[in-house]
Every structure is written in structure tokens, then in C-alpha cells.
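Honest question from a wet-lab person: if I give you the sequences of every part of a complex, can you actually get the arrangement of the whole thing, not just the pieces? Trying it with mine:
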Amino acid sequence: MSARKSKVRCCDETPVNVEGVSEGELLARLAKALAHPARVTIVRMLIERASCVCGEIVGELPLAQSTVSQHLKILKQSGLVQGDIDGPKVCYCINKKMLKLLQTLVSGLK
Amino acid sequence: MSARKSKVRCCDETPVNVEGVSEGELLARLAKALAHPARVTIVRMLIERASCVCGEIVGELPLAQSTVSQHLKILKQSGLVQGDIDGPKVCYCINKKMLKLLQTLVSGLK
DNA sequence: ACCGTAAATCGTCGATCAACGATAAAGGTA
DNA sequence: TACCTTTATCGTTGATCGACGATTTACGGT
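Yes, you can. This is the full assembly:
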């Protein structure tokens, strides 16, 4: 093996591609990512546990593995969540920048 | 005419029925209401202009009147927006309690 | 009573969502 | 290599969304 086979830390810094997207569009996208109870639960889990897991998420939700995988895909596409491959598993975690952005956009509604 | 035909103020206090709904469910609902750019625009308009109008909203969006009406319905169902009938027109405005609730729920994501 | 304006509702259509089981891909281990 | 585990993807199904035009409903004004 090279340096380290599987790094414990995952989801380092984040690109966050938000090119030419209006604030309204962006807020709508992020809101859409949260527009399902299961996804809210996933986000909360990822925030709570700094450690990012995937199988655990499946175990915690009353949904099939494929369904959870779909929700994770949607969350990843929104940028709110990232997933790093760690051996046979995938390590998911929150993109704090995006979460912060969402919070800023929502708080700015006034 | 009796006292005042059409009150200038509209959207007084708000009921806000959030009975037996978990926080996650609630956040998901509110997020869903914002999960479309047109609805974000509407919410922003209503926040900006204390005066609440409906025809103006239609005039400002590149959408048919019926489509805007649908979006308004969704926003009303979420509780984020209220509409009071004012003669032949309908006066829409933000439910500040709900907006605050949304902001609290999103800010609480940490 | 009649007309005009404002808004909601209806019906339709294509697109997307949400869920599942089944299957495939990718990596670790014996 | 063969297996096992983990996750993603495929294919399907029913439900909901988003948009529209057309129609209906509700008021105000004449």
C-alpha cells in the first residue's frame, strides 16, 4: 500500500460549483434537497455524527437501501452532502460551506 | 357601505396549525414550499412589499395566471403565506411566524 | 340585471419524484 | 480466484409537480 489505505477523515474541503446561479435559484435547489423528511433526517445524522457512514443511514431509516441511496444522490447533487469512497464503504458527510450558504440564504429572507 | 369596505391592512395574526408534526417533517414541508424558483421569488416579493398584492405577482413572473395561482396555493398550504380576500382582489402576504419558524429550523441545523 | 375584472379551479400533458426489488460494480478477505 | 460486503444503478410503478388554456366563481361598478 502507498501512504494510507483508508483515511479516517473524509470529505475534505469542497469545490462548491455555484457558477451563474441566481440566489433565488440556489435557494430553491437547496430547499428542494431538504424537501423530504428522510433527507432532513439524513442531514441531521450527518451533522450530529462527525463520522460519516452510509450503511448506518440505511439502518436508521425505514427505507430500502436503494431508496436511501437515491436520497443520498439527491443530497450530493445539491452540494449539501459529499461522499468519499473509503474502501468498500462510502463515507458521507455534510458540506459545511453549503449548509452555511443555505442558512445565510434563509436567514436573509427578511 | 358599513364601516370600511376594504381594509387596507390584511393578513392579521395567524393560526399556524402545527399539531403533531415532527420538526423534521415540518422543515421538509417548509423547504418544499421554497423548492421552486418562482415560489422563492414570490416569497421575496411579499417580504419586500409590506403591501400584499396578487395581480402584481402575476405581472412580475413569466408565468400564466393559473400557474401563479397554483404556486400561491402551495405557499398557502405550507403556511408561509396567507391570503385575505379584499373585494375582487386577494391580498397576499407573508406569515411572519412561519418564516421565523423556518429560519429557526434551518439555523438549528448544526 | 349586466358587464368587467380578479382569482381560483378544472382538465390535460409531460416530467420528475419516491419507492421497491433485482442486478451490477468495486473492494476487502480467505 | 472465489466469496462476501457495501453501495450504486437499472427498470418499473404509482403519485405528485409544473405548466398551460379554458372555465368558473366572486365582487364592484354602471
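Two things worth pointing out. Chain B touches chain A through 25 residues (CB under 8 Å). Chain B is about 50% helix and 10% strand.
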